[in-house]
Design brief:
heterodimer; A: 91 residues; alpha+beta; Arc Repressor Mutant, subunit A; two-stranded antiparallel sheet; elongated; B: 442 residues; alpha/beta; FAD/NAD(P)-binding domain; 3 domains; seven-stranded mixed β-sheet; 22 strands; 21% helix; 25% strand; binds flavin-adenine dinucleotide; binds iron/sulfur cluster
């Protein structure tokens, strides 16, 4: 395959990536891994995931809904009280 | 130069014009004015500072009072605008300076921000998004979920083309490696473009009131206090969550409260006027919520209901008949319980009693504010504002699109808060007054 020209290397010569951006990237990678790990065996609701992962509830909601948007998790029913959905990992 | 309709932009010769009209802002007002003028045969340049045209309307769920799907109405108009042979669209473009010359032409300089993606080559396949390791709050979902650093703004964006948020890019190059069309280009730079036009339409729309300044409502501190625009997204087909959910814990809410007039008719926040649309969009959302969550209680705390337009009162009565609970009450404060529920303390305006009620989600019906930054762009003639900082209409009764500068017209919510039907009428007036001006010119 023909090797692509990497224009990103040209920009790298003049532009630095901020510490904040690197921290945020690491945070997302970690949380994504934790959530995926927690959903490996069975589907779970957001409160169950928060307990299992020790992550704050709003963070679980935000990142899990992001993974739903990216097509990495899907809805897998709702509890008996019709309060919380269950989410499963898309393999 | 990237443009939906490829046209060479760097050719401003004195004495000739590149376009008959420059329309600034591609919300529904800018699109409608551009379309009307283009249909009359005028050459229009439509510039938009965001990466997609469509303004606020393209992000709404359904629209009052007809409950038509907003995307279904706006998408055909957006495509018609993008395809029209007499309209050139530039996104990520902002006017820097406009100078009226002695020959009555306007000399316009605008900034074109880089997309870092070759617009005409991107197929919108989103392959780049799958490998991008960086996420940030998705501004088009009003921060309810994240997006990647390289992203397509939203599904029905026009152009439906990726862009890179360079401030949040790690420069890892994964997108460039992955893109099957080879259209990522990190060497793109900001460009300054000069053109001449015969007339200008300002259609820069409105700003949303930021409720963070009303501390007693707890917005920004309490996760389950959201804005009406966030609820629009939750109700839209391209919503951030799988259903209507609370941001604190993903619970399906069943006691929802609306607080009308948040940031409107309120001297303490510097906006003494009615925003014209909040009563009705809240009523619309209440109807949609009663459809989506049939068991939910919806309470709407209001001061006065302003249902003044065609079909509005019937729409309001319909919401009441469906079970919406309208409470004439002034909210004093909101406090949060440990489970994320919210206690509303309010004065019942009918009985005068101070009462408390618990809800599990609170929606702030935020108002519309003037977006007046565009005035700074006019360098040698003053684009005047009215007392509330909207674009002044010196001849409101007979020529509502005229501004303080001859040859510059105004359309839509740049003049005052208004709903979509009134915006369309205002844009029609702007197009017709502009065409009259251009015909005199020739
Ligand atoms: C929550 C909510 C719900 C609503 N629901 C309804 C409803 O159901 N029915 C209804 O009739 N109305 C509704 N409305 C009102 C409706 O959104 C407005 O009437 C309509 O969007 C006004 O369109 P506009 O083009 O004037 O402004 P905008 O939609 O604000 O468009 C202005 C455009 O100009 C661009 N712009 C601004 N400055 C510049 C610049 N300097 N250079 C280039 N571009 C610029 C902006 O990015 C934007 O794209 C609702 C409003 C809100 C807030
Ligand atoms: S270079 Fe930037 S936009 Fe591209 S994949 Fe890496 S972080 Fe994402
Ligand atoms: S930039 Fe490339 S990979 Fe990304 S959407 Fe466009 S064509 Fe697809």
């Amino acid at each position: 395959m023909e090797k692509k020209i990497r224009t990103v290397n040209i920009l790298k010569e003049t532009r630095k990536v901020s510490e904040h951006v690197n921290e945020e990237r690491k945070k997302y990678i970690q949380i994504r891994k934790t959530l995926r790990e927690a959903l490996k065996e069975e589907s779970k609701s957001i409160p169950q995931l928060a307990v299992d992962t020790n992550l704050p509830l709003p963070d679980v909601t935000y990142y899990l809904m992001t993974l739903l948007k990216f097509g990495e998790v899907a809805v897998d029913g709702i509890d008996d009280m019709d309060e919380y959905y269950f989410y499963k990992l898309i393999k | 130069m990237e443009a939906t309709n490829n046209d060479s932009m760097n050719r401003s010769n004195a004495g000739t014009t590149d376009y008959d009209v420059l329309v600034i802002g591609a919300g529904i007002a800018g699109e409608e004015s551009a379309l009307k003028l283009a249909d009359m045969g005028f050459k229009v340049l439509l510039i938009e500072k965001e990466p997609s045209i469509g303004g606020k309307m393209i992000l709404l769920s359904k629209v009052f009072p007809t409950l038509d799907c907003a995307a279904c109405i706006t998408t055909p108009k957006v495509s018609e605008t993008a395809r029209h042979p007499n309209i050139t669209i530039l996104t990520l473009a902002e006017a820097e300076s406009i100078v009226k010359e002695e020959n009555n032409l306007f000399s316009v300089t605008f900034k074109k921000h880089p997309r870092y993606v070759v617009e005409n080559d991107c197929t919108g396949c989103q392959e780049c998004e799958t490998v991008c390791p960086m996420v940030v709050k998705d501004q088009f979902q009003f921060n309810l979920v994240a997006r990647k650093a390289i992203y397509i703004p939203f599904n029905i964006a026009n152009p439906r083309v990726a862009l890179i948020d360079i401030e949040n890019c790690t420069l890892c190059g994964a997108c460039e490696q992955k893109c099957p069309s080879n259209c990522i280009d990190f060497t793109q730079k900001e460009e300054l473009v000069n053109i001449k036009v015969k007339s200008v339409i300002v259609a820069t729309g409105f700003k949303l009131f930021d409720p963070i300044s009303i501390e007693r409502y707890g917005y920004g501190r309490y996760k389950n206090v959201i804005t009406s625009m966030q609820m629009e997204r939750e109700l839209a087909p391209t919503r951030p969550f799988n259903s209507v959910l609370r941001p604190s814990d993903g619970k399906v809410p069943d006691k929802i409260a609306y607080i009308f007039c948040t940031g409107s008719r309120d001297h303490t926040v510097g906006n003494p006027i009615c925003s014209q649309v909040c009563c009705m969009y809240s009523t619309k959302q209440a109807q949609l919520l009663m459809g989506a969550l049939p068991m939910a209680d919806i309470s709407l705390y209001y001061i006065n209901i302003r249902a003044f337009g065609k079909g509005f009162n019937e729409f309001y009565m319909q919401a009441k008949d469906m079970g919406a609970n309208y409470v004439k009450g002034k909210i004093g404060s909101i406090s949060e319980k440990e489970n994320g529920n919210l206690i509303l303390r309010y004065e019942d305006i009918v009985t005068g009693k101070v009462t408390e009620k618990e809800h599990d989600l609170v929606v702030l019906s935020v108002g519309l504010l003037a977006n007046h930054e565009i005035t700074k762009v006019f360098k040698n003639e003053k684009l005047e504002l009215d007392a509330l900082k909207y674009i002044k209409q010196p001849d409101l009764l007979q020529s509502p699109a005229t501004t303080s500068i001859k040859g510059v017209f105004v359309a839509g919510t740049a003049t005052s808060p208004m709903d979509i039907p009134d915006t369309i009428m205002s844009a029609g007036a702007a197009a017709s007054e502009t065409s009259g001006y251009l015909n005199q010119w020739s």
